Amino acid sequence: MNKIDCKQLKSEELEELKRKIDGKNIGLRIIQVEGDSASDVYVKNKMKAGREIGLDIKHILLDQTFETEQIINIINVLNKDDSINGIMVQLPLPKHLDEKKIINSITPEKDVDGLTYENLGRLLSKEEGLRPCTAEGVMNILDKSIGLNNLEGKRVTIIGRTKLVGLPLYHMLLEYHATPVICHTKTKNLENYTKNADIIVTAAGAEEPFINKEMIKDGAIVIDVSTVRGEDGKLHGDVIYDDVTDKAGFVTPVPGGVGQLTVLELMKNTYKAYNLQKQIKPEKEKTYIKKASN
Q1: Which of 94-111 are b and which e, b meaning 16 or more Cβ less than 10 Å from the residue's Cβ?
Q2: Superfamily of structural domain 13-107
Q3: Residue 90 is among the residues annotated as catalytic for this protein
Q4: Fewest beta carbons within 10 Å, which of 48, 90, 110, 200?
């Protein structure tokens, strides 16, 4: 099994994407409402990657006085602009804003976060569409480490049921005949699900790392999606990394793991959105869609 260096994978695939984008005018707009320090870092990383590969990328920063309808008006202008191929709204939004209404005002073909109801419905229906970036990043890691076709029959425990990770990932794994199960805050005896899993994907966002070597089986792949800043100011995930490394077959670090791939998949989705809008057939490459027979 290959142990994936997520930073290196991001760098290599961004370079390939830069080659594909060369000479094309592809526009991406990132809308952010100020007030969340973690979002500032995420947006900075996305802007940096976009500039590196040659996107026409701009950051629209709004103060917290903006209301839901005002943000939707901005999105509607971008929806109608043919030079803009991708639109994303940085989450989370302040509590006074209607997140669902704002996200679903984005034209599905420009929804590079893959979070509109239409794109999520396309995923469930195994149809072509834009898919949530973090879940795609997890699939990319699995592809590079064990190969997607080798997911068949694998027991996968997903911790967390958000539309960003757990729910879309569940359906992506089913496309490759894996046997996923989703655990959450109401799940009893979590260890019963993690100890027998071939693959664990955790996105619990716990205040302190809690997954230790006693909770996993020998050789398990452990993918830690969570990024939480602790009281000491350092970032951590859900996994006690140093405790599980000797027992697991592969563990993604925090930071420097799945977050790298989330940025990468946003860039890939933007290029895909451009091709969908221009009705350009992409260069032949792997696809995550593999129809399940039953």
Answers
A1: eeebeeeebbbbbbbbbb
A2: Leucine Dehydrogenase, chain A, domain 1 (3.40.50.10860)
A3: yes
A4: 48
